[in-house]
Amino acid sequence: MFDQLKEDINIVFERDPAARTKFEVLTTYPGLHALIFHRMNHRLWQANVKFIARFLSFFARWFTGIEIHPGAVIGKRFFIDHGMGVVVGETAVIGDDCTLYHGVTLGGTSWQKGKRHPTLGNGIVVGAGAKILGPIEIGNDARIGSNSVVVRTVPDGATIVGIPGRIANAEAEVTAPSPEQEALAKKIGFDAYGTAQEVPDPVAVAINGMLEHIHTLDKEMEQMYNEIKSLGGKVDAKQVTELTSEPVDDGTGTSCRGNKS
């Protein structure tokens, strides 16, 4: 028991640079208090002393602001940073070396009895405000971004962002946009080119891909127009123009195209 407590305190020093002394950690860290309560309550739950386990978990929630059902299974070296608003459901399973920040919910999506809460592997970090819902599995060493909502199984080592949560590969190669692509993005009010290389936002990456596709289609249409005209075909006299850095007024409002250079 004391070895377990010592390990729990040492983990705080490893993952929180604000920790100063063991006495301070033991007396002022609600995440540690909630974990100590849970370890005791979980033993009572397994011994079928369920009312006392639930009552003590209720007291722990009042005392720490963290709600952990006594039926939840939590592994070694678990750390809750800040902690306020954390909720861990009855059938949740958390592996070793996991970290949760404040506002995290490991919740269910069904009123049916049985397994209805998520299972977290080892080495997982869940950012502030994230919600992981349902009997899904989160792979080892995964990272769940702040305020993400995860409702599907996550593979090992993945980084999840957004609502609903999507896999973001921060290591993927990002091709620098051309001036024409940047101009089109600016005209439609989209400014992901300046952030997509630093922020792994899968939505931004998808829109970047659409902009590149549109620009490619513009070039191909102009090439087709020139080929048809060279063969003597009758085509609309209005030419397909290339993008410029400044919008123009074609008489019906501001166009996303500039003048032919």
Strands, helices and their partners?
Elements (H helix, E strand, L loop, with lengths): L1 H14 L6 H7 L1 H17 L3 H15 L2 E2 L4 E2 L4 E2 L6 E2 L4 E2 L4 E2 L4 E3 L11 E2 L4 E2 L4 E3 L3 E2 L4 E2 L4 E2 L8 E3 L4 E2 L11 H9 L14 H29 L17 E2 L4 E2 L6
Helix pairs in contact: 3-4, 5-6
Describe the structure.
Helix content is 35%, strand content 14%. Strand 16 and strand 17 form a beta hairpin. The C terminus is likely disordered. It has two domains: 166 residues, 3 Solenoid (UDP N-Acetylglucosamine Acyltransferase, domain 1), CATH 2.160.10.10; 70 residues, no CATH class. It is an alpha/beta fold and 261 residues long. Helix 3 packs antiparallel against helix 4 and helix 5 packs across helix 6. It is built from six helices and 17 strands. It is elongated, with a radius of gyration of 27 Å.
Which labels suit this protein?
six-stranded mixed sheet; 6 helices; alpha/beta; disordered C terminus; 261 residues; UDP N-Acetylglucosamine Acyltransferase, domain 1; five-stranded parallel sheet; 35% helix; 17 strands
Number of helices: 6
Sequence stretches where pLDDT stays below 50 over 5 or more residues: 170-174, 191-199, 254-261
**Cα shape:** elongated
Class from secondary-structure proportions: alpha/beta
Q: What would you report as the Rg, rounded to the nearest angstrom?
A: 27 Å
CATH class label of the largest domain: Mainly Beta
Strand residue content: 5-15%
N to C succession of SSEs: HHHHEEEEEEEEEEEEEEEHHEE
CATH homologous superfamily caption of the largest domain: Hexapeptide repeat proteins
- How would you classify the quaternary structure? single chain
Overall domain count = 2
CATH topology of the largest domain: UDP N-Acetylglucosamine Acyltransferase, domain 1
Let me know the largest β-sheet: 6 strands, mixed
CATH architecture label of the largest domain: 3 Solenoid
CA(first)-CA(last) distance: 77 Å
What's the helical proportion of residues? 25-40%
